[in-house]
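Subject: Sanity check before I submit

Could someone independently write out the structure tokens for this chain? I want to compare against mine line by line before I put it in a report. The sequence has 172 residues.
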Amino acid sequence: MRWAFFCGLLCTGIYTKAQTIIKPVRATSFELPGADGTPVSLSSYKGKTVLIRFWVSWCLPCRIENRKLVKRYNRFRDLPFEIINISLDTDTAEWRAAINEDKMNWPQALDYPDLQRSTANKWNAAALPASFLIDPRGTVIAADAALLPVQDPRGFENLLRRLSAGNGTAGR
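---
Independent answer below. Compare away.
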């Protein structure tokens, strides 16, 4: 199955989703090729709260979300917090152009095009954009979480501080 077809079906009308608090589950590890040639792995960010985002360069809701996050990213970087974008693009030139156009300066990774090997498939990222918030202990605590830092920056900052201070135990 080609990702372009798969993502085209899933990328329509999804941008308005609200974040979903989920039953905490261990985050699935990954290591993918990064935009700069350095591998990107979730394990490299142990001890930080991480927002994992699945996207594709030609998905308008994905690109809008990218630009909104760019405006907030620096506010949260030192809390400790990181965003990792995982693209399902098959055209690396388009992927790199979108990264530059949207001015994203957080880690960027390219998913495997093989559906069985893909990180998106392992994470059940069934609609794009898809995002997951991982606490400092490596537990997924929310899905569809990319709008948290955009819609409520003060509340998100407080959440990051609690997660950092409590080793990922905020709200438990």
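---
OP: Matches mine. For the report I'm noting this point. Residues 1-17 have pLDDT under 50 and may be disordered.
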